[in-house]
Fold this protein.
Amino acid sequence: MAHQATPVRRARLGRALGPEPAAVSGAVLLLPGGDEVSARRPSLLMAAAPVRALGRRLARAGHGEGLVSHAVHYRYRGWNGSEAHLAQDAVWAADEVVRRYGDVPVCLVGVGMGGRAALHAAGHPAVNSVLALAPWLPEDDMAASPEPVKQLAGRQVLIVHGTNDERTDPELSFRLAERAKKANRDICRFEVHSDGHALHQYRSEVHALAEDFVMGTLFGRAFSRPVQDALAAPPPLGLRMPLAAGFGRSLRRPPESR
């Protein structure tokens, strides 16, 4: 009896979230979390759920400018050491955006292990910005190479981390941002005080910050004053910027008061 060939796993883009623009002029790729090691297939619904609400918000906010938002469905649930499967899939997804929509700027938005994938894949030519939410990063180990940061040069980067995160160490994201800032001034990091890994307590503020950053990097909208200050401030100030309760409310001013 002949053995059937094992089907090749392929990453794919989910359906566009929110309203699709008539013409695409920018793209957000949403990279869900994952495991450190796993050869299993991700559950499409479970894996993408934490980023879908953010993706829909960004799609609505950028609809007029031509923003499209897709969640990336990975081949594997795990990062898997040197294979870095999630980062590979993020690079594939950026290639796919170029194939579908042409030469448009891409923002990689990753959560947890997806945040690590976003940071790794930032060197793709189409990527102009990275938003890493509570990124999973490996423990410092003198025997291992440190997480790369050279690929972040020329990109605008925002890291957001809850100070009470018990799943991904916020101090590790600070150290990475500190190293990256030496070669790239366009990086900042916000701390969400007393919030955990999922950033549920200040979800509204985190989503407002994400919108502010993505619309600014992809379409040139002016950043809010806190983001401007964080980008301009020297370390450690711009890398430990507190996210204020109620952030985003003052951004929704009526046109006549702007």
